[in-house]
Amino acid sequence: MRPEILIPLFAETDGLDGIGPKLKKPLEKLGLTRVRDVLYHLPERFVVRRAVTDLDDAGVGEQVVVALDIVEHRASRSPRGPYRVMASDAKGNICALTYFGRASYTAKKQLPVGEKRWVAGRLDQYDQMLQIVHPDHVAEKSEQAMGQMVEPIYRLSEGLTQPRITSLVEQSLERAPELPEWIEPSMFRREGWPSWRQAIAQAHKGENAKARDRLAYDELFANALALMLVRESNRKRKGQPLQGDGHLRDKLQLPFPLTGAQRRSIDEIAGDMAQSSPMLRLLQGDVGAGKTVVALESMLMAVEAGAQAAMLAPTELLARQHFKTLRDMARPTGVEIALLTGRDKGRARESILMGLLDGSIDIVVGTHAIFQQSVAYKNLGLVVIDEQHRFGVSQRLMLAQKGRVTPHTLAMTATPIPRTLVLANHGEMEVSRLDELPPGRQAIDTRVLPVDRLEDIVAAIGRHMESGQQAYWVCPMVRDSETMDDDIAAAEARYAGLKERFGDDVVLVHGQLAPEQKDAGMARFAAGEAKVLVATTVIEVGVDVPNATLMVIEQAERFGLAQLHQLRGRVGRGSEKSTCLLLRSSELSETGQKRLELMKSSQDGFLLAEEDLKLRGGGELLGTRQSGEEGFSIATLEQVTRLLDMANADAKMLVEQQGGLANPERGEAARTVLYLLERDWGVQTLRGG
Ligand code: ADP
Ligand code: MG
């Protein structure tokens, strides 16, 4: 149960003044549905102004507050021209206050000729004339403008304004209670940090390193504490040592020898699984590095030792593909492999559930359906999680609770994340790296083309198809909106265009198609019947069709490097040379351009990931969307690096030496921060375990 003191913070924003039905959507878009969300919507930056007595004292480009006498209004002759209010400072310097469009109405009202006004804004120069375009504030008395010397600037969504958000923040601050202190007392004193309530207020009022650090620390601490609680509860649960004798693996007839990195990883996994404490290992390997075979070998080990194994995939599409691949590869071994997804209903589902319960199914592949309450296993020994960053920590935890004893866990990811972040996101976890690609892979010829070459590209696709090869066409990301309606509209439009040209050779796959349609489309493409697959980013993870050797990505600059790398990894899987065409818009930001350059010059996922972090800078949040990792929404990368050790050490001390949440002095406060920062899955495991 959430501590009572947090009730006002988890109240819906609907209850705040000035929120009508019109604001609901824009707020939801920013994720600001509860008071706590508004409080944690920290300013992106601040405008800091300086009060000057005259403009001689101010530099061009500077944010100033200055008193001006209004001299004259000058409307432009053309209707769309600027509306200028000429004003003079204390020394007689003339400055134009310039307005465009409707804003001129405000100017007429606010700036009567012959009067004095305090004006806040950015001083510019136009020709030889000083000017302020659209002043931020105009006040009759200086104090009013002075009150805005430091002004927070918030991230907005369509329909919201800065003053609106500022007002919501102020109301939320009034409702924020003083919370019990969860930071260890001597650390709290040493760092000189403000209390939570002070910190959250200060963070909205101006640049304040201590306040920001404290809030970041809270997040790291809550996360570390939750992970630590889980680990503790896992440790108390027994694992089962599994030692395969090789009798199944010997029967495998792989069409290729394993790489050194694959063999090494398999050995590391075997070593872990032979222990009685449950394995928790992350297998990191770039796209195409061959993680699936490692998973198969590990699962066979479990089956050899008399246990069952389950493999979890993030999408239906991937689950089906894995099922097919594993079944084909494992055929000579005679193990029973089943597929279970949310779509299986009735008899078929019942019979799979029976098989899992009586042990006649050795390996099950599926989506999260395989871990629902109703699914019981005879003896689940190993859980493999593919593309693990797609799953929340809480989902992963549910899996660990499935077996009679805690099963071993192997998480796999193609997202190369630095060690610090592995630790921050997953707690203490062993890592195996597939740092060697299977031999014979050819470099993918990557080119950047302006979007106005579309005709040529369509022609090239035609030639490509005639040569018997297949192609992916990835549609632009129009918006980051949750529903992605616009993305789908763009994909439908492109599909219609290509279909007109190439007929039934083209299929479309996106997230909102009926599952059967999606499967049918994928299946036709995988079987080589369809030659071009038009898709939104649903094909990002895992799809494996070696005959597809051309990839077109529209508006490539809008994708992050890691995502582009994943997408490109869909080609270059067979023996034929592959090509990736990155189409860019006519207007390209500097970062966008750098990204595309990097994509052209490198095919190393680890390098690209590091460059990606650099491009985004140390101030970047480690939110889910950007990095693909579930992560931190308050702490920046720089703060994670600086504060994580402290947070880990304190969480460890609290859990291992001070009795954890049962500690009479700190327990309640610790519970509070877990709920406040929505790491309450840490509390839940306690109950479950
Ligand atoms: P990922 O790591 O991206 O999941 P996959 O497991 O899908 O990669 O493997 C990519 C492709 O490489 C598959 O077609 C697979 O059969 C092939 N492959 C895997 N290991 C080897 C190897 N040692 N030698 C040659 N090909 C391999
Ligand atoms: Mg894979």
Automatic annotation (TrEMBL):
Keywords: ATP-binding, DNA damage, DNA repair, DNA-binding, Helicase, Hydrolase, Nucleotide-binding. One of its GO terms (biological process) is DNA repair. The keyword Nucleotide-binding applies. InterPro entries: DEAD/DEAH_box_helicase_dom (IPR011545), Helicase_ATP-bd (IPR014001), Helicase_C-like (IPR001650), NA-bd_OB-fold (IPR012340), P-loop_NTPase (IPR027417), RecG/Mfd (IPR047112), RecG_dom3_C (IPR045562), RecG_wedge (IPR033454). One of its GO terms (molecular function) is ATP binding. Residues 272-434 form the Helicase ATP-binding domain. It comes from the Bacteria. The keyword GTP-binding does not apply. Pfam families: DEAD, Helicase_C, RecG_dom3_C, RecG_wedge. Residues 453-614 form the Helicase C-terminal domain. This is Probable DNA 3'-5' helicase RecG. The lineage of its organism: Bacteria, Pseudomonadati, Pseudomonadota, Alphaproteobacteria, Sphingomonadales.
